[in-house]
Structure of ABC transporter ATP-binding protein:
Amino acid sequence: MSAITIQRLSKTYPGAQPVHALDDIDLQVRQGEFVALLGPSGCGKSTLLNLIAGFEQPSDGELRVDGKPVAKPGPERGVVFQEAALFPWLNVWDNVVFGPQMAGKPKAEYEAHAHEMLEITGLSQFTKHLPVQLSGGMRQRVGIARVLTLGSQVLLMDEPFGALDAQTRLTMQELLLSVWSRLQKTVVFVTHDIDEAILLADTIYVMSARPGRITTRIDVPIERPRSLELTTSDVFNRLKRDIMRQIRH
Ligand SMILES: Nc1ncnc2c1ncn2[C@@H]1O[C@H](COP(=O)(O)OP(=O)(O)OP(=O)(O)O)[C@@H](O)[C@H]1O
């Protein structure tokens, strides 16, 4: 069974001038697959992600995660935004365990897991730091550790590295590759950066604007494990040229 099944999905935002944000979207995401949604600003990438997250409801069509229709947000679908919305008065540890604590889980059920997720995201030495004491990249790591600690099998990432400087962005892409290969989560990753999509994803869906549609599906024919050096290879550049051509069309 696919982790995410989307069929003939459309979304129109109502209003005096309704916005037809998505039209006739078909998409299947396998368990453990890394999918990138790539397209220009306004093509509906965030709308699609918000529908999968359950923040919005489709106007038409079907959307299932693990076979069940999505009716509302849930802990099995963790969302990482461009800015990690951390509680500024809580330290890293308390931010990361906030979800399981609020869900009333006993410490024994989440503590060891939270420590492991903090280790995987390189935060073990920073558990007592407040968000204000961390860089943007470190705050995003906390955001990722938090959804991993929640136990979400599906990670929905909306330009999570879009606000970071170029160097930090590369470090975070490497971190995400390593987290993904260790934990085999299903990831839907929104970006308008072609390099980022090729480096990270198994499959890239290219979207066009107004109304947002999927124009092309690309299987990234690059073996894993992947590293940043890939981005200067011939196969990478050929694929990048192809995608740029398709986006221009
Ligand atoms: N809540 C809303 N109400 C009305 N229109 C909306 C709403 N959210 C998004 N839209 C519109 O839907 C269209 C798609 O927006 P969306 O944010 O999904 O695109 P995007 O591809 O993620 O863009 P960006 O890369 O700039 O974030 C845009 O025209 C946007 O203005």
